From TrEMBL:
Entries under SUPFAM superfamilies matching the protein: P-loop containing nucleoside triphosphate hydrolases (SSF52540)
GO cellular component, one term: plasma membrane
Taxonomic source organism: Actibacterium pelagium
InterPro entries, A to Z: ABC_AA/LPS_Transport (IPR051120), ABC_transporter-like_ATP-bd (IPR003439), ABC_transptr_urea_ATP-bd_UrtD (IPR017781), P-loop_NTPase (IPR027417)
Gene Ontology molecular function, alphabetical: ATP binding; ATP hydrolysis activity
Protein name: ABC transporter ATP-binding protein
PANTHER family (alphabetical): CONSERVED COMPONENT OF ABC TRANSPORTER FOR NATURAL AMINO ACIDS-RELATED (PTHR45772), HIGH-AFFINITY BRANCHED-CHAIN AMINO ACID TRANSPORT ATP-BINDING PROTEIN (PTHR45772:SF8)
Domain of life where this protein originates: Bacteria
Segments forming a coiled coil: none
Annotated ABC transporter domain residues: 5-246
Keyword line: ATP-binding, Nucleotide-binding, Transport
């Protein structure tokens, strides 16, 4: 698997406190990866540095085949380069239908003025259909998004991000607040999505991570504490101690 994202020796300090401490790791092209770690481990800050929200004090963040540096690029440029981020709370347009939300996401992908000149063409209709299928909302296309369940809104937002064709999708706690059936469906969406692009999932729910069946990175005090299968990392004594607060 070729490397898509390489974080190397990155540190972030907030008021003298090292939230990220000499962090290094790689994400492969079309890889599904889970990131876990106790509260304060640096998971959110990691996503902030990759998406350009927070600038590291030191280290390198390299992207794509050409190992392009993401440092110095703003959030919009990084999104354009192909990194999408799903925050924990879904932010869909509640007054619009599922179809319209997906349509807006496609428009957004075409630059700042595209909204003014946009007309739905058959290719977009088809793409919206495919996206709805991917997120399991084909039978809800003409429903107002505000009427969807919490889980369905989360899936719609994932669909809106997929519309922008990211090569890497960062997803923050996708299973939070979901029913078991919704969690299961979310697993399917993410596993399918990771067949054609990299997906990094930050999540607390270990059962959910088990179903993702992917490599897990454990962060602690801003560094990688362990990496490997879920069984491998959860049998690591240091990881057990950190989770038990020892
Ligand atoms: P996680 O997402 O794993 O819970 P965070 O990345 O949110 O961890 O935070 C890592 C550490 O950095 C925590 O100790 C947190 O209090 C601290 N931190 C995060 N953001 C800031 C900030 N803007 N200013 C000061 N400290 C921060």
């Amino acid at each position: 698997m070729s490397t898509l994202l390489e974080v190397s020796g990155v540190s972030v300090t907030f008021d003298g406190f090292r939230a990220i401490n000499n962090l290094s790791f790689r994400i492969g092209d079309a890889e599904l990866r889970a990131i876990i770690g106790p509260n304060g481990a640096g998971k959110t800050t990691f996503m902030d540095i990759v998406t350009g929200k927070t600038r590291p004090d030191e280290g390198r963040i390299l992207w794509g085949e050409k190992s392009q540096s993401l440092l110095g690029m703003n959030e919009a440029k990084i999104a354009q380069a192909g990194i999408g981020r799903k925050f924990q709370k879904p932010t869909v347009f509640e007054e619009q239908t599922v179809f319209e939300n997906l349509q807006m996401a496609l428009k957004n992908d075409r630059g700042p003025f595209s909204v003014l000149f946009y007309k739905t063409n058959p290719r977009d209709q088809e793409r919206i259909g495919e996206l709805a299928e991917e997120i399991g909302l084909s039978d809800q296309l003409y429903r107002k998004s505000g009427e969807l369940s919490h889980g369905q809104k989360q899936w719609l937002e994932i669909g809106m991000l997929l519309a922008q064709e990211p090569r890497l999708l960062l997803v923050d706690e996708p299973a939070a607040g979901m029913t078991p059936a919704e969690r299961e469906h979310t697993t399917t969406i993410l596993v399918e999505a990771a067949k054609t692009r990299a997906v990094v999932v930050v999540e607390h729910d270990m059962e959910f991570i088990r179903r993702l069946n992917c490599k897990v990175t454990v962060l602690h005090e801003g560094s990688v504490l362990a990496e490997g299968s879920l069984d491998h990392v959860t049998s690591n004594q240091e990881v057990i101690d950190v989770y038990l607060g020892r």
